[in-house]
């Protein structure tokens, strides 16, 4: 474990880069090789170009598996992009102290991964809302606030459990 801690940000940076590249390659493959509409509903493509169709009817005719695969690829790419940023933010602002030595420890990996995934979930959700033409600044800010509050609650719960464990021992 100490050898892993000596590496610092390198494992997080490499994993983030790998996830980002995998997500981008998956998005490129989905966009270039898969047709998201049923062939029977090709009239929607012409109507979309002419501006005669609603966004809801376009998504109703779309292949749901392809849309979910695209949103999953967005989630993976954004998670990979945000992983090193979440590591730096946690390293700068959190107080992980080793109780024996009193020195600061690097942030826990599962916490940084979870926070990067919240960012990926938020961007994927906003992408889905934009596909429905329902995205607005207020909706995006509200969803971000809910996700931030959820993370704060998880942090409070984790800190409360460590306080309970240290009192018992």
Task: For this entry, give a set of tags.
single chain, 169 residues, mainly alpha, 7 helices, 76% helix, elongated
Tell me the layout of helices and strands.
Blueprint (H helix, E strand, L loop, with lengths): L1 H5 L3 H24 L9 H8 L4 H7 L2 H30 L15 H23 L5 H32 L1
> Tally of extended strands?
0
Secondary structure: helix percent? over 70%
- Cα(first) to Cα(last) distance is 23 Å
Please count the helical segments: 7
Report the C-alpha radius of gyration, rounded. 21 Å
Query: What composes the largest sheet?
Result: none
| Overall outline | elongated
The parts where pLDDT drops under 50 for at least 5 residues are none
Mean pLDDT: 84
Binned strand content: under 5%
Order of helices and strands: HHHHHHH
- Derived from helix and strand composition plus strand pairing, the structural class reads mainly alpha
How many domains? Answer: 1
Could you explain the architecture of this structure?
The protein is an all-alpha fold and 169 residues long. It has one domain. 76% of the residues lie in helices and 0% in strands. It contains seven helices and no strands. It has helices spanning 2-6, 10-33, 43-50, 55-61, 64-93, 109-131, 137-168. Helix 6 packs antiparallel against helix 7. The radius of gyration is 21 Å and the shape is elongated. The mean pLDDT is 84.
């Amino acid at each position: 474990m100490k050898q892993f801690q000596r590496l610092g940000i390198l494992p997080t940076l490499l994993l983030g880069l790998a996830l980002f590249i995998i997500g981008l390659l998956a998005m490129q493959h989905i966009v270039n090789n898969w047709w998201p509409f049923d062939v029977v509903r090709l009239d929607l493509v012409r109507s979309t170009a002419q501006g005669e169709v609603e966004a809801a009817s376009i998504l109703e005719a779309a292949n749901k598996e392809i849309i979910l695969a695209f949103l999953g690829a967005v989630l993976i790419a954004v998670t990979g992009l945000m992983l090193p940023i979440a590591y730096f933010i946690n390293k700068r602002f959190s107080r992980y102290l080793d109780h024996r030595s009193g020195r600061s420890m690097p942030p826990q990996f599962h916490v940084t991964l979870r926070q990067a995934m919240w960012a990926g979930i938020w961007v994927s959700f906003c992408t889905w809302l934009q596909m429905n033409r329902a995205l607005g600044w207020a909706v995006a800010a509200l969803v971000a606030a809910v996700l931030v509050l959820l993370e704060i609650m998880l942090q409070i719960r984790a800190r409360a459990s460590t306080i309970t464990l240290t009192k018992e021992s």
